[in-house]
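Figure 6 in text form: structure in, sequence out.
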C-alpha cells in the first residue's frame, strides 16, 4: 500500500464566486414536467401489466375445460420498473415544487449600535 500525503487546509477547495440561490420559480415548471412524465410512465406501466398475462383454455378429451393463466416476467418487470421510476419522479417533483415556492432568504439583522 502506498501512503501518499493528503492535501489539507483551506486551499483544498476554492469557494464559489457566488452561491446559486435555491429559490427559483422556474423549478415549478420542472416539477410540472416531471408530473406529466410520471403520469405517462404510469399509463405505460398499466399497458405493460395488461400484456403480462394471458389465459389459456384447453378442453380435455373427457370434456373438462381447463383454464390456465400464463405470466410473462419481462412485461411484469417492465411494469414494476416503470412504476418505481414514476414514484421517483413524483418525489423529485415534490422537492422541486417545495424549492420553487419556499420563502426567500431574509437579510441578516444588523447588530444594534450601543
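Output sequence:
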Amino acid at each position: 500500500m502506498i501512503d501518499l500525503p493528503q492535501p489539507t487546509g483551506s486551499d483544498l477547495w476554492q469557494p464559489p464566486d457566488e452561491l446559486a440561490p435555491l429559490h427559483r420559480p422556474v423549478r415549478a415548471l420542472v416539477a410540472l414536467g416531471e408530473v406529466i412524465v410520471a403520469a405517462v410512465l404510469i399509463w405505460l406501466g398499466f399497458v405493460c401489466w395488461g400484456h403480462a398475462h394471458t389465459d389459456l383454455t384447453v378442453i380435455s378429451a373427457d370434456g373438462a375445460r381447463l383454464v390456465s393463466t400464463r405470466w410473462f416476467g419481462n412485461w411484469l418487470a417492465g411494469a414494476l420498473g416503470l412504476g418505481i421510476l414514476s414514484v421517483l419522479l413524483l418525489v423529485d417533483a415534490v422537492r422541486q415544487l417545495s424549492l420553487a415556492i419556499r420563502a426567500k432568504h431574509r437579510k441578516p439583522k444588523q447588530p444594534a449600535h450601543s
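Caption detail: The chain is about 45% helix and 10% strand.
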